[in-house]
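sorry for the late reply, my laptop died twice this morning and i had to redo everyting from scratch. anyway the thing you sent over, i finally got around to it. pasting the sequence first so we're on the same page, its 230 residues, then the predicted structure underneath. double check i copied it right bc i was rushing
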Amino acid sequence: LKKIVRRDEGVFAVTGEGVDKVIRYCEQTRLTYKLRPTADWPALEISGILMHRVMATTPRADAQAKVALLAPLHGAVLETCMGLGYTAILSAATARAVTAIEKDPNVLAMARINPYSQELFDNPKITLIAGDAARVVSGFPRASFDVVNHDPPTLSVAGELYSDDFYGDLFRLLRPGGTLLHYTGAPGSRGRRVDLNASVSRRLTSIGFVNVRTDLQTSCILAARPARPA
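ok and here's the structure:
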């Protein structure tokens, strides 16, 4: 990380040659937010839970792998749960426009002080929406996006983002032939009593998505809205 010192808004940076740790505690949520250094871009950690994959990969490499699944990536892209915005930034390199939603103002605050997230605020192709994705997506017109990148918190934290109603909204706002990229995490995770990949795949298929498949490298499900008949 570049050298940053912030002591406003509950943010503290411990510095050496660079930033070793950036911490924000929120009284309202009673959660601690950290930028955790890695081999490349920092990972977001919320009260001990990492929001990025770091086992056998890095936040940058993981974001690149996810965006590569969507290549060639053009048109309008929706990010439902932006986080530090790495996939949104990489998508904006080729997409016409990127709309990114983030619910937690503390995460937005961490993104603002993260040097590798600054393009979120500087790139005119990226539009940020501070809000709950479960509510925001219902307000988009039908067929607004060519790609949706859905990277929600865990099922236990945000079950509404795995619901049939929410998936129906994603289907509605995708253009015919559009692609959904849905991060689900590694199947068979410790403590999980359901096969989340299988459950999500069944739900997406029942909604009307086609070509539903799992990419094991990124722990993502890809699906498409059917193209219009020829």
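The chain is about 25% helix and 30% strand.
thats about all i looked at so far, will dig more tmrw
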